[in-house]
UniProtKB/TrEMBL annotation:
Pfam entry (one): DUF6894
Name the record gives this protein: DUF6894 domain-containing protein
Domain DUF6894 stretches: 3-65
């Protein structure tokens, strides 16, 4: 199992996932990110971003919801 971290930003707040979640692959991590974002949309949260990182901190993808638009994209690894 691989470890993925799901960092969230919404409503002006940012939450960093320090513990992470063990999942079998990137596809499952993407599915989990969509589940998280969907729950926040249901709660009427606005300007949502969920950034998925691997165990080494490499940013793999980001899902954003801004109004009625949802976007998903891969991100280059950025130095911290």
């Amino acid at each position: 199992m691989l470890r993925f971290h799901f960092d969230l930003a919404y409503g002006g707040d940012v939450y960093h996932d320090a513990m992470g979640t063990a999942l079998p692959d990137v596809k499952k991590a993407k599915d989990r990110a969509f589940e998280i974002v969907s729950k926040l949309v249901e709660k009427k949260c606005q300007d949502i971003a969920c950034t998925v990182r691997d165990a080494n901190g490499k940013r793999l993808m980001q899902i954003t919801v801004d109004g009625d638009q949802t976007q998903i994209g891969t991100l280059p690894n950025r130095a911290r």
